[in-house]
Amino acid sequence: MKRLPILLGLFILLLPFQTKAIICSNEDKVKYQTLASNITSSYTYTEENGRISFQITLSNIPEGFIIKDTKNDKTYNYQGNEITIYNLRSNTSYRFDVYTNDIYCRNDLLYSHYVTTPPYNPFYQDEVCIGMEENELCQKFTRINLNYEQFKEKVNSLKLVEEKPIEKKEEENIEGIYDYILEFYLNYYYIVLPIFIVGGIIIIYRYNKKSSLF
Question: Rounded to whole angstroms, how far apart are CA atoms 176 and 31?
Fold first, then answer.
């Protein structure tokens, strides 16, 4: 019984050192964080019958690291430097937290990788999109908040706008009085010109006659 207080005292003295020993050192944490940040991510997809499924691949995973899919609450232990996660939805943000199985640092979040899959348009191959492939509504990866009937109506209305011919307003020819005089002369010069000539001769004759009287 006398030994119990002594042993208890020794345990209390050693406890802080043991607690400190199981804490992840800054040096180790920085090293693991650097390795975790070097993990790369990419996605592919499979498409069938108007449905799409995404696969996200995480590569360059260091040995002994753990990946946690926070969206689906799944943990992937190290089984090689690459893992692929299947059957993921479109238009969804996923977060993958990286940890290490190092006993001293296993509780420390080292890095988070974010991957967002694009929105998928299940109607982009519909026949209503023929000739409208460049329009946003007929793109494969675009957000469509319409049901099928609404989608068709919207695309058809856009077709009508694009196919409607542009009416060219004919310019009105506004002619002045001199244009009418010139046009009249060109049409009837064979009548007008002799009249001008005869009239000019008469005026000259009368002028000369008056001048001779003085």
Answer: 90
pLDDT digits (tens, 9 = 90+) for 177-208: 766 676 766 666 667 667 767 777 777 767 66
Sign of CA pseudo-dihedral 144, 146, 148, 151? negative
Residue among 35, 41, 85, 27 nearest 65 (CA): 35
Q: Which alpha helices (H) appear in 119-176, and where do they start and end?
A: 148-163
Does the global pTM surpass 0.90?
A: no
Yes or no: say if 102 and 34 are a contact pair by the CB < 8 Å rule: no
Q: How far is CA 112 from the centre of its chain?
A: 24
Arithmetic mean of pLDDT, 88-99? 97
- How many Cβ atoms are within 10 Å of 99's Cβ, its own excluded? 20
